[in-house]
Amino acid sequence: MNIKPEEITSIIKQEIQKYESKIETVDSGTIINIGDGIARVYGLNECMAGELLEFPNNVMGMALNLEQDNVGAVILGSDKGIKEGDIVKRTGEVVVVPVGDALIGRVVNSLGQAIDGKGPINTTEHRPIELIAPGVITRQSVKQPLQTGLKAIDSMIPIGKGQRELIIGDRQTGKTAVALDTIINQKGQNVICIYVAIGQKQSTVAHLVNTLTAAGSMDYTIVVASSASESAPLQYIAPYAGCTMGEHFMAQGKDVLIVYDDLSKHAVAYRTMSLLLRRPPGREAFPGDVFYVHSRLLERAAKLSDALGGGSLTALPIIETQAGDVTAYIPTNVISITDGQIFLESDLFNQGQRPAVNAGISVSRVGGSAQIKAMKQVSGTLRLELAQYRELAAFAQFGSDLDKESKRRLDKGQRLLQILRQPQYAPMPVEKQVMILFAGVDNHLMDVPVDRIREFEDKFFEFTDTHHPEIKASIAEKKALTDEIKANLIGAITEFKKVFLAEE
User: Fold this and answer.
1) Are 285 and 262 in contact (CB under 8 A)?
2) Cα(372)–Cα(146) distance, rounded to whole angstroms?
3) Where are the beta strands (DSSP E) in 335-415?
4) Residue 40, CA distances (Å) to 32, 119, 262, 278 in order
5) Residue 117 has what DSSP assignment?
6) Pairing with 38, which of 98, 101, 401, 414 sits 20 to 30 Å away (CA)?
């Protein structure tokens, strides 16, 4: 074999031209301690707070404690197969989740991975789970109503787009039911809903998804589930992940409703994580920054200015109390962050008053600016009349003789409470709410027996839908009760009452 020297020279020249010197440096460390989903890593000198770390077996973690000689990290997933001495690499990124329309109608975990068996989620967009809340200049005041479909809430504790309204009460008082009714009521309202389940049983989440599917509400809803069987770090990041998914739509000028169910379990997951990271405990063994954990989440709810598209993110956080104690640490924290609270009471629930809203303690700090004018007109005296009824009812228990006016107030209060009752998963359009509340507040139901009020309501709506559909249509169009609409409504009530009372 005869090779010419010039051929060798040309080959060497080509190789020299193609040669690139690439040196990759990877900042890595060694696990010195692992257990309970917490790893202590030695050697990550350049690591940042909240940075994503790569553990063996394609498991990711998040750096939380930056100490002098090691980094305390939480593992986002299972720590099986990870042992002391393993290498951990920095990624230089923070935790991100997928966002976009592909998520709508799906059930995902805290990292945005599908867990509903419908295949992977096809989206290329990602956003960090921790983002700074919109500033004062980029917001506008809350002025558009977000209807829950529940008469007791829309009339007395109205919720506006961009508001943060806390749902608080003991276990089994209907907190999730209120949130679900609100989601179901957004059908056809161009509102994207996100339900974040934190630390719940998987069977409960499955039942909830079935309920939303049956109501046709999964078409505009994302469910983010971090069940009780998952690690504390995954439960901790779940609400931030859900919030990020919502902010993506808010930035496009859309309206979003997000439910955090519930932040009590979220605080417990954070406490678990903090104590395992050896952070000093404070009141009720919660770490000192547990207020900040919730405030930086809830402050991200906003109504953006028109210059930024006018999108909104409305938050309904849920808090579970113990024996109605709203003065405990986490309830008082979240009450002070939110724009009002809906307080659900066990006694009312057991008496059959559902939704079991205590109108005395519940409040909306946005108030009438989140109501249509028609609702303001009928609900103006409602709260006052219910307060007078509660006072008189407590007094009347002693069996003393009451004067005529006191008896009238008691009778009216009983009828108003009957009107405010509503079955689960049956939210009502605001026009119908206005019609029946007008009948109650304007003393048109005083001659209808208390035990027949619910029957009256159902049949009255059937009657108006058939014979006077223009009343509902005109309330929906004008959003106010004009003298003409009032006259038509009184006429319809009087006409129907003759038929209804004759049935007895």
Assistant:
1) no
2) 10
3) 340-344, 363-364
4) 6, 35, 30, 11
5) S
6) 98
Pairing mode, if any, of strands 221-226 and 255-261? unpaired
d(CA 271, CA 286): 5
pLDDT band at 280 (very low <50, low <70, confident <90, very high): very high
Helix, coil or strand: residue 55: strand
Within 10 angstroms of residue 429's Cβ, the number of other Cβ atoms is 14
Pairing outcome for strands 51-55 and 59-66: antiparallel
Taking only the tens place, the pLDDT of each residue in 337-360 is 999 999 999 999 999 999 999 988
Q: Which of 132, 155, 178 is nearest to 319 (CA)?
A: 178
- What pTM, to 2 d.p., does this model score? 0.92
Q: In the annotation, is 365 catalytic?
A: yes
- Going by C-alpha positions, the residue among 262, 238, 246, 258 that lies closest to residue 134 is 246
Q: Which residues face 94 on adjacent strands? A: 51
Give the Cα separation of 279 and 448 in Å (integer): 62
Nearest to 72 by CA among 29, 102, 109, 40: 40
Which among 296, 293, 341, 336 is positioned nearest to 317, based on CA atoms?
A: 341
Determine contact, residues 276/284, Cβ cutoff 8 Å. Answer: no
